[in-house]
């Protein structure tokens, strides 16, 4: 389990670095301490979102059909998580968003295989649950990001005035 946590944290920090470092480059006056805190906070949030992906897919599956094995759930394992870490490392916007998306689809397919094997839902149904869960989590995180940026911009404008 500790290997899964470490891989989730590495994927989260790498994903956050792909979003924060371009911002830090465009604003050369940003203090390094602030950039480090942003990386840490963003990495923890991204790791939490990654950790919630299988749980959210499992919950959606339970809403669609009753699971064949009620005590089992869908969880990250090191072999399912390794491609996610690779996709997070490649998440830097200028290094290939299409490749990043392709790797996320591959990770989702691996989750769908595991989910289909654990439930009476077919592979396409499991893939749909995984996709809806991933899309929902992604949209939720993007809304929170934009809200934080909007709030911080509003506070900055108040401080200037």
Task: Provide a concise account of the structure shown.
This protein has 161 residues and is mostly helical.
What does this structure look like?
This protein is mostly helical and 161 residues long. Helices cover 81% and strands 0% of the residues. The chain contains five helices and no strands. Helix 2 (32-64) packs antiparallel against helix 5 (123-160). The longest helix is centred in the last third of the chain and has 38 residues, at 123-160. It is elongated, with a radius of gyration of 18 Å. The N and C termini lie far apart (51 Å).
Q: How many E strands?
A: 0
> Can you give the helix content as a percent range?
over 70%
Distance between the termini: 51 Å
Poorly predicted regions: none
Secondary structure class reads mainly alpha
H/E series: HHHHH
Instruction: Report the biggest beta sheet as strand number plus sense, adding barrel if it closes.
Output: none
Task: Compute the CA-based radius of gyration.
Answer: 18 Å
Mean pLDDT, rounded to whole units?
Answer: 78
Quickly count the helices.
Answer: 5
Strand content: under 5%
Overall outline: elongated
């Amino acid at each position: 389990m500790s290997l899964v946590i470490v891989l989730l944290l590495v994927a989260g920090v790498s994903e956050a670095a792909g979003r924060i470092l371009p911002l830090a480059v465009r604003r050369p006056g940003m203090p390094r301490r602030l950039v480090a805190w942003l990386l840490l906070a963003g990495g923890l949030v991204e790791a939490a979102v990654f950790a919630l992906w299988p749980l959210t897919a499992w919950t959606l599956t339970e809403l669609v059909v009753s699971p064949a094995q009620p005590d089992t759930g869908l969880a990250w394992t090191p072999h399912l998580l390794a491609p996610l870490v690779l996709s997070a490392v490649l998440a830097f916007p200028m290094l290939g968003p299409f490749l990043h998306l392709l790797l996320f689809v591959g990770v989702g397919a691996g989750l769908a295989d595991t989910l289909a094997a654990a439930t009476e839902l077919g592979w396409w149904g499991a893939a749909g649950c995984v996709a809806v869960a991933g899309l929902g989590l992604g949209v939720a995180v993007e809304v929170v990001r934009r809200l934080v940026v909007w709030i911080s911009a509003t506070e900055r404008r108040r401080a200037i005035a």
